From TrEMBL:
Organism expressing this protein natively: Candidatus Faecivivens stercoripullorum
One Pfam assignment: SMC_ScpB
Ranges that cross the membrane: none
Name of the protein: SMC-Scp complex subunit ScpB
NCBIfam families membership: SMC-Scp complex subunit ScpB (TIGR00281)
GO biological process: cell division; chromosome separation
Amino acid sequence: MEMNYFAAIEAVLFASGTPVEITRLAEGLGLAPAAMREQLLAYGEQLDRDDRGIRLLFLDDLVQLAAKREYDPQIIAVTDLRHNAPLSGAAMEVLAIIAYNQPVTKGFIEQVRGVESGNVVNNLVEKELIEEYERLMVPGRPLTYRTTANFLRAFGLASLADLPPLPGDLIGEQPQPESAPDDDIEN
């Protein structure tokens, strides 16, 4: 009996409820990654053609079932989305700083904004829009932050490459993101 890949993809993505690595999906369905991508693209086209309420959302090397944006008003009317309350201006500002400069420390964010930003960063971590990434190899070993797949999904982006370009007058105004000092510097 031949497998119905579209049905299998839909079942796995529906049951998961979260983004799934395309390579893992390919392994689970016994396909090569390239063949899995072809199946996903064809399935996504079928969802659009059949005028369904769901779509495939690609997030770099992840894929997820998602509601089509045109049904947002109905979804909001029926479900309790208060936990997804709109982000404040400060939160949007911090997200933009992180998205365009990641990974960055709280110190970098505060340098760009000119105000203490710890609470905003913590709230964005709670909402899973950003995550702790790694510690820099500098004195104090500060944590760096980067955006998550939830950030991409919330803003309808497939990858960070889809971010709109910064306005020309903002390019070059911000400090450069921190990086660890070169290990090959001689004393």
